[in-house]
């Protein structure tokens, strides 16, 4: 069983479209949407939710005003600017450390368990999908991402599937780190722009920091062929295989609007390139057994 | 002495689970009288520091040795600080693992075998 | 006025809007708070004058003063402090720097040390003042670096903040306490899905906001319908243009290559001033 994650560093490079295409092409797989604070993969996969669970990431302080004597000890110790002048707690800034609750001489501060989000196991036309929704303004520390990863892996093992395909999130912080942890391959989707290359460099540094094997796809490559060449040189320098270059095609937007993967929508150049890329991935990963 | 084996289930026939911090059960086996009990691992869904919490729990149970598939760096630190011997690389059923241990077939592990976050979705 | 530019979905054009708005106005300070993947500097090309490391406090134990009482472990909710065999083990990557263990140690055996997690760079290009933050590779949490960038806010200027994508804590940290949020979106199902999440965030924070629809002719009408139904002002529409995509890809700014856009961004600013205090939006 092999796990592949699709990341980019920069947002909007085409991760979800490509993850959707792999979902359509791979046999015997589980999909995992690890972009938990802006999940989109379900818009292509039309999931039927079979299980729904609440996710709790920790605790948040709450002041019982009737017990508070206004001594202000809480405000002195809080490092996250989470306690207002009237000694009520700003739940958005509170990191749940409990320091205020411990120093309050009146025991007026209670640490309440958060309901930070929900996670789901669903059926789709391509197989099971594990996805989640982080609550509005909740902390995205990677815990929910790790949970989605764990559940997807359990399902794949239970059903003896060959692949776990993970749609990652932009950035390089803990949600991304949690989504790449322990995968067999991280596929970095790069767009041919200075920003795209700059961000891809940083996310590749993260994969190297954690010893994760990495490969590159250049998306919308014809929007700037010079930049595409720069990216190819950079990949070569870093010893990273470029799996393929995908042409820009408005048909991709149309496929998303219709809620279809590009593979189902058309057999255009984009779809053909993705088929070739997937075949390469299969060969590469099944070889390293 | 008491030995903890990471397990995917609550019986001796269950398979050794490869993850120290996030396995579903520990089988605590007493070498003196051959008795055992299955303990649910409360750290398995812990947010951060599952290996740390698990290491603490094992230490609190006065276990002297751990048999498992893999141990990550945080758990390794905690178990070492508690002077608990670690034997990793075990596979097969819990019963097989106990027999191999009694026959002295396992070597003590010198360092963590996997990077952190191993138990979260790796093969 | 402090204007933040956010989106929900990545890649909708936040940096493009933030940069070109900054270059179209005078007396401006641009803060790039996308500290995981900062890009504004590529377009602004500032000359950097200073560089400061960003630190978070991490506890360090003086084993001579410690008697293994375990009080530190009791107060730590993150499993970052553990006492085994009367020895304290610290796990700094789990630490949130709350200071609880340091405070509650009865023997004052814990002190705080600084751990570097990122860097702030300050500079300018012509009239535009510029600050950005970069999270160090392998570090987990961006909010402390974002907060460090925002410490440099100069209220005497028009301040523009480029926020990270998403809807969770890094974005909140970036847009909190700003006067107006521009939400940049694309008229596709992904764009609309993430826009509605971002709208919930901004409403929860109680900040006035408006929407810019980028690549406005590539997609469907649902985003327009959503904004109309929710009474959200659409401040600007930019149609897809290969020319603009190409300008962006080389790291150039639209208003420099296509000066007619300068006026459009100045119009945008005027619209923001008009909408800033509208009660219907909050």
Brief synopsis:
Chain A contains 11 helices and 11 strands. Chain A has 289 residues and is of the alpha/beta class. In chain A, the strands form 2 sheets. A 9-stranded mixed β-sheet of chain A has the order 3-6-7-2-8-1-9-10-11, with helices on both faces.
Task: Describe it.
Chain A is an alpha/beta fold and 289 residues long. Chain A has 2 domains: 2-46 and 125-287, 3-Layer(aba) Sandwich (Rossmann fold), CATH 3.40.50.300; 57-115, Alpha-Beta Plaits (2-Layer Sandwich), CATH 3.30.70. Chain A has 11 helices and 11 strands. In chain A, the strands form 2 sheets. A 9-stranded mixed β-sheet of chain A has the order 3-6-7-2-8-1-9-10-11, with helices on both faces. In chain A, strand 9, helix 7 and strand 10 form a beta-alpha-beta unit. A 5-stranded mixed β-sheet of chain B has the order 3-2-1-4-5, with helices on both faces. Chain B has helices at 50-60, 73-81, 94-102; strands at residues 2-7, 25-30, 36-40, 65-67, 85-87. Helices cover 24% and strands 19% of the residues of chain B. Chain C is α/β, with parallel strands linked by helices. In chain C, 33% of the residues lie in helices and 28% in strands. In chain C, strands 3-6-7-2-8-1-9-10-11 form a 9-stranded mixed β-sheet, sandwiched between helices. Chains in contact: A-B, A-C, B-C. At the A-C interface, helix 4, helix 7 and helix 9 of A face helix 4, helix 6, helix 7 and helix 9 of C.
Task: Record keyword descriptors for this entry.
A: 289 residues; alpha/beta; Rossmann fold; Alpha-Beta Plaits; nine-stranded mixed beta sheet; 11 helices; 11 strands; C: 282 residues; two-stranded antiparallel sheet; elongated
> How big a fraction of the residues of chain B is strand?
15-25%
Q: Helices and strands of chain C, in N-to-C order?
A: EHEHEHEEHEEHEHEHEHEHHH
Query: Main sheet of chain C?
Result: 9 strands, mixed
CATH architecture descriptor text of the largest domain in chain C:
3-Layer(aba) Sandwich
What is the global morphology of chain C? elongated
> What value does the average pLDDT of chain C take?
93
Helical coverage of chain B, percent range: 10-25%
The class by helix and strand makeup of chain C works out as alpha/beta
Oligomer: heterotrimer
Give the uncertain stretches of chain C in residue-range form: none
Structural category of chain B: alpha/beta
Summarize the topology.
The complex is a heterotrimer of chains A (289), B (123) and C (282).
Chain A: E1 2-7, H1 15-25, E2 29-33, H2 42-45, E3 48-55, E4 59-63, H3 73-77, H4 99-103, E5 109-113, E6 117-124, E7 127-134, H5 143-158, E8 163-167, H6 174-180, E9 185-190, H7 194-209, E10 214-219, H8 225-237, E11 241-246, H9 250-257, H10 262-265, H11 269-287
Parallel strand pairs in A: 1-8, 1-9, 2-7, 2-8, 9-10, 10-11
Antiparallel strand pairs in A: 3-6, 4-5, 6-7
Chain B: E1 2-7, E2 25-30, E3 36-40, H1 50-60, E4 65-67, H2 73-81, E5 85-87, H3 94-102
Parallel strand pairs in B: 1-4, 4-5
Antiparallel strand pairs in B: 1-2, 2-3
Chain C: E1 2-6, H1 14-24, E2 28-32, H2 40-44, E3 47-61, H3 71-75, E4 81-84, E5 87-90, H4 100-104, E6 110-125, E7 128-135, H5 143-150, E8 158-162, H6 169-175, E9 180-185, H7 189-205, E10 208-214, H8 222-229, E11 234-238, H9 242-249, H10 254-257, H11 260-275
Parallel strand pairs in C: 1-8, 1-9, 2-7, 2-8, 9-10, 10-11
Antiparallel strand pairs in C: 3-6, 4-5, 6-7
Helix pairs in contact in C: 1-11, 5-6
């Amino acid at each position: 069983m092999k796990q592949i994650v699709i990341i980019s560093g920069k947002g909007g490079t085409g991760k979800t479209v490509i993850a959707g295409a792999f979902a359509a092409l791979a046999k015997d797989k589980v999909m995992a949407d690890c972009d938990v604070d802006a999940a989109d993969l379900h818009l292509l996969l039309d999931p039927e939710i079979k299980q729904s669970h609440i996710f709790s990431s920790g605790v948040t302080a709450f002041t019982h005003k009737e017990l508070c004597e206004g001594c202000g000890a809480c405000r002195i110790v809080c490092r996250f600017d989470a306690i207002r002048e009237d000694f009520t707690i700003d739940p958005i800034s509170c990191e749940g450390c409990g320091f205020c609750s411990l120093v309050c001489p009146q025991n007026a501060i209670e640490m309440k368990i958060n309901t930070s989000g929900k996670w789901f196991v669903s059926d789709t036309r391509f197989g099971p999908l594990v996805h989640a929704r982080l609550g509005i303004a909740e902390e995205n520390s990677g815990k929910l991402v790790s949970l989605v990863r764990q559940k997807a892996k359990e399902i794949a093992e239970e059903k003896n599937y060959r692949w776990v395909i993970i749609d990652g999130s932009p950035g390089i912080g803990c949600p991304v780190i949690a989504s790449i942890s322990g995968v067999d391959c991280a596929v970095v989707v790069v767009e041919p722009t200075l920003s795209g290359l700059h961000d891809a460099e940083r996310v590749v540094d993260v994969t190297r920091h954690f010893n994760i094997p990495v490969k590159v796809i250049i998306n919308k490559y014809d929007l700037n062929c010079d930049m595409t060449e720069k990216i190819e040189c950079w990949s070569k320098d870093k010893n990273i295989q470029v799996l393929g270059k995908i042409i820009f095609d408005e048909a991709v937007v149309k496929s998303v609007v219709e809620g279809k993967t590009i593979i189902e929508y058309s057999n255009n150049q984009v779809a053909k390139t993705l088929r070739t890329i997937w075949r390469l991935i299969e060969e590469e990963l099944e070889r390293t057994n | 002495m008491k030995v903890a084996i990471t397990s995917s289930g609550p019986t001796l026939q269950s398979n050794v689970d490869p993850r120290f911090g996030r396995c579903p059960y520990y089988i605590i086996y007493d070498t003196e009288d051959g008795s055992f009990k299955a303990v649910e691992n409360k750290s398995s869904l812990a947010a951060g520091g599952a290996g740390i919490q698990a290491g603490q729990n094992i230490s609190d149970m006065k276990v002297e040795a751990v048999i498992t598939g893999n141990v990550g760096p945080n758990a390794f630190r905690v178990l070492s600080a508690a002077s608990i011997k670690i034997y990793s690389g075990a596979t097969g059923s819990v019963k097989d693992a106990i027999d191999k241990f009694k026959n002295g077939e396992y070597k003590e592990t010198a360092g963590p075998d996997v990077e952190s976050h191993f138990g979260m979705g790796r093969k | 006025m402090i204007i933040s530019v956010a989106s929900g979905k990545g890649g909708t054009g936040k940096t493009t809007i933030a940069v070109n708005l900054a270059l179209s106005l005078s007396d401006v300070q641009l803060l790039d708070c996308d500290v995981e993947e900062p890009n504004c500097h590529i377009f602004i090309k500032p000359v950097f004058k200073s560089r400061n490391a960003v630190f978070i406090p991490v506890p360090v134990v003086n084993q001579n003063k410690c008697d293994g009482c375990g009080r530190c472990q009791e107060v730590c909710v993150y499993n970052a402090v553990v006492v085994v065999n009367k020895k304290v083990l610290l796990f700094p990557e789990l630490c949130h720097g709350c200071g609880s263990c340091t405070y509650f140690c009865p023997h004052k055996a814990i002190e705080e040390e600084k751990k570097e997690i990122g860097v702030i760079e300050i500079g300018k290009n012509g009239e535009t003042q510029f600050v950005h933050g970069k999270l160090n590779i392998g570090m987990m949490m961006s909010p402390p670096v974002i907060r460090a960038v925002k410490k440099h806010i100069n209220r005497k200027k028009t301040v523009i903040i480029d926020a990270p994508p998403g809807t969770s804590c890094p974005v909140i940290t970036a847009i909190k306490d700003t006067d107006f949020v521009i939400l940049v979106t694309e008229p596709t199902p992904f764009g609309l899905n993430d826009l509605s999440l971002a709208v919930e965030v901004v409403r929860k924070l109680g900040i006035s906001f408006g929407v810019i629809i980028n690549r406005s002719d590539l997609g469907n009408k649902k985003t327009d319908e959503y904004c109309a139904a929710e009474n959200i002002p659409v401040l600007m529409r930019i149609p897809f243009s290969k020319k603009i995509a190409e300008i962006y890809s080389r790291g150039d700014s639209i208003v420099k290559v296509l000066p007619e856009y300068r006026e459009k961004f100045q119009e945008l600013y005027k619209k923001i001033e008009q909408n800033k205090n509208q009660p219907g939006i909050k």
